[in-house]
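pasting for ref
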Amino acid sequence: MSSNGDDVPQSQAANSRKTRKSRPWFKRLVTLALAAVLFSVLQVASLRFINPPFSSFMAIRMIEAWTSGDFSFRLKHEWVGRSQMSAAIPLAMIASEDQKFADHGGFDLEAIEKAQARNARGKKIRGGSTITQQTAKNLFLWGGRNYVRKGLEAWYTVLMEVLLPKARIIELYANFAEFGDGIYGVQAASRTFYGVDAKRVSVSQAARLAAVLPSPRRYSVSKPGPYVQRRARAIERQMRMIGGQGYLHKIED
C-alpha cells in the first residue's frame, strides 16, 4: 500500500505530464509566429537584390477586375532603376509626400500628430504616413484603416529601414506607386501620360505625377483639374525649398 508521501510526487508528475500535453497549441503558435517573423525578414532582405515583379496592391486590383467580370483589364507596370529616372521624379515624391525622408527612421511623429489633430477637427481624413510606410503597404499589405494592417505596416516599415538603404526604398516606392487606375510605377505613368520614358520627365511633369499620389483614381495626370494644378505648382516650390537635386545626395547608397 502506497504511503501519502509516495502519492504526492506521483500526483505532481502526472499533473506535469498533463500540462505538457495540454499545451501543444502554444508551441505551434510560437512556431508559427517565429516562422512569420523569419519570412517577413527574408521578404524585405531580398528586396535589396531582387526587383519584385508585382505588389500586393497590383494583385488586389487584378482580382477586383476579375471578380467584377472585367477580364480584359490589364495592369501597366515596368520596372526602372533610379539611374533610368529623371532626378525630378524622386525629388517631387519626397517634396510631396515626405520631406523628412532622408532623416527619419521610418516614422514622422510630427506628421502623425498633425494628421490626428486635423482628423479630430472633422476635416478631410489625412494620414501621416512616410514614404517607407507607404512602400511597405503597397508592396505587402492592403488598403483600409484597421489595427491589424497598421501593425503589420509598422513592422514592415521597421524592417525596411533596418535592411534597406534609403535610395532603394525610394526606388521601390517610385516603381509601385499608383498614378491612375491600373497604372503602377513611374515608367508606365510617364509613357501613358507623357509619351516619354521616366528618364526624360521634366520637373513640372514630375510634380504633376506626385500631385495625384494621394488619390490616383480620383485625380488625373493627363487632365489635371484646378486642385492638381495648384498642388503641382506647390510641389515645384517645395522641391526648390528642400534643396533641389542636392537633397538626393542625402539618400545616396
